[in-house]
Amino acid sequence: KIIGIGETGLDFYYNHSEKNDQINSFLEHIDACQKTKLPLIVHTRSAEIETLKILKEAKNKNDVKILIHCFTGSKKFAFDLLDLGAYISASGVVTFKNSKNLAETFKQIPNNRILVETDSPYLAPVPLRGKPNEPSYITHTVKFLSKLKNISYESFSKKTTENFFNLFGKLN
């Protein structure tokens, strides 16, 4: 069963493909989401301005549900995305020692807009950084975020699960 479309978006960090090709592909995926009413799972790296512009234009034409996967962007970008109704997903990166700004951003993101992911096999959270990531490691990211937000692990886990179902619907 298909529950979302993606991962799609813009990655201008590595230059593995032309910007215009990425933008055109992203627009096609957005169109598919709007036609099917499925959530759009967005990857964005070194492309905050372009990603935000495209998503704003898309939302103005026809609603689209948005999940920003593996968020590592700026605080301003996060809050601009929240203004569009987006959900923002944290990976193990948020637990890294050099990710203090990212952690501070997640601390301020409303709990009802956060999801948590592994991005397996990449980005294993502290204390397992450097190892191949796996789904069971998600507990470390959830523990980190729940402590950061001063909420119990159980409550935060329940909230992120609720957020998942609010975005993707009930799965059969």
How does this model look, in words?
It is a single chain. With 172 residues, the chain is α/β, with parallel strands linked by helices. Helix content is 45%, strand content 13%. It has six helices and five strands; from the N terminus they run βαβαβαβαβαα. It has a five-stranded parallel sheet. The protein is globular. It starts with a strand and ends with a helix.
Q: Largest beta sheet: what is the strand line-up?
A: 1-2-3-4-5
Backbone CA Rg: 16 Å
Helix content: 40-55%
Tally of DSSP helical segments = 6
Q: Mean of residue pLDDT?
A: 96
Q: What is the N-to-C order of secondary-structure elements (H for helix, E for strand)?
A: EHEHEHEHEHH
What is the strand tally?
5
Class based on secondary structure composition and strand pairing: alpha/beta
Describe the global form: globular
Question: How would you sum up this structure in a few lines?
Answer:
This protein is an alpha/beta fold and 172 residues long.
Secondary-structure blueprint of this entry?
Blueprint: E1 5-11, H1 19-36, E2 40-45, H2 48-61, E3 66-68, H3 75-83, E4 87-90, H4 100-108, E5 114-116, H5 138-148, H6 153-168
Parallel strand pairs: 1-2, 2-3, 3-4, 4-5
